[in-house]
Amino acid sequence: MAQTMQGVFFLGAGQLELREVPIPQPAAGEVIVKVSAATTCGTDLKAYKRGHKLFKPPMPFGHEWAGTVVAVGEGVTGFKEGDRVTAANSAPCGACYYCRRGKPQLCLHLESRFNWGTYAEYLRVPAHIVSINMHKIPVHLSFVEAAFIEPLACAVLCINYADIALGDTVAIIGSGAQGLMQIQLAKAMGASQVIAIGRAHGRLEVARQLGADETISTLDTDAVAAVKALTEGRGADVVIEAAGSAETWQMAAQMARPAATVVLFSGLPGGTQVSFDATHLHYDEITLKGVFHHTPRTVEQALHMLISGQVNVKPMISGTIPLREVEEGLNRMARSEVIKLAVLPELH
């Protein structure tokens, strides 16, 4: 095996660099993976555009991946060289205040337990992720599809928080990858009508292909009025916000019927303040829920849904690019030209 590899580094907002760096070696409990596919992500895009509290530059970049184990450290028993694998980008400690209370996604030590650097030829997977959140993948599941395990695990936690009942109308704001996965999950949970709300008509067409019953472009119409028109004036039973702006957070609450649940999936820049109609929230008994990250259980659930095909991620991949085009790929995402791109390190 070669001694060096190429990898993309985050140097700060608006700054990426492709570097030649040593191939990592596994410590006890760790594995080294040859990355077959990484996928671009909205979180990476936000970090690239404006910075992110979890991204401490200079640092290796990227966090969604799948590949093949090429080396294992001392004590690793569940994996061997040649295994096809994928993993989440973190794993909880299991012992802190929140882990003991069934909220591992809020682990007090989470910031030190992330793993970055998937836009690279090789990746070191730390022992705590190997032991909890790394999984083998079957031959029939492509590396590109398997790389969705982390974002899908986040979508699963979101849909679990939504408390969808059989026959519900669910409005999903945002037609990026998260919104498109949540459409499929809402249907799986028993929603009778899923309304997809976005801007780009092309993405909304994909939403229809993946199960949305109605689509609304905010370029064409008032989304709140349109949702109420589709629900006899009430509003949606459940609203999921997956677009990522203060305006769409407000929109989510506005289109919720009395006694509805609103799940705020997308993060906003630190310090952002959002105003809501207190009369609507209080007298109409609106439940607002924040949701963050994933759990070991939702990682497992995501893998099973990818393997079974219950969630179809293929239409979300708009093309493939080499490592040297990651920065332009993120800019293409920002312009809504693509949904996600598969980064294939073997391409040159």
Automatic annotation (TrEMBL):
Keyword set, alphabetical order: Metal-binding, Oxidoreductase, Zinc
PROSITE patterns in alphabetical order: ADH_ZINC
Listed InterPro entries: ADH-like_C, ADH-like_N, ADH_Zn_CS, ER, GroES-like_sf, NAD(P)-bd_dom_sf, Zn_alcohol_dh
Ranges of residues in domain Enoyl reductase (ER): 12-343
Cofactor(s) listed in the protein's UniProt record: Zn(2+)
Transmembrane segments: none
GO terms, molecular function: oxidoreductase activity; zinc ion binding
Family, similarity comment: Belongs to the zinc-containing alcohol dehydrogenase family.
Protein name: Dehydrogenase
Organism of this sequence: Candidatus Thermofonsia Clade 1 bacterium
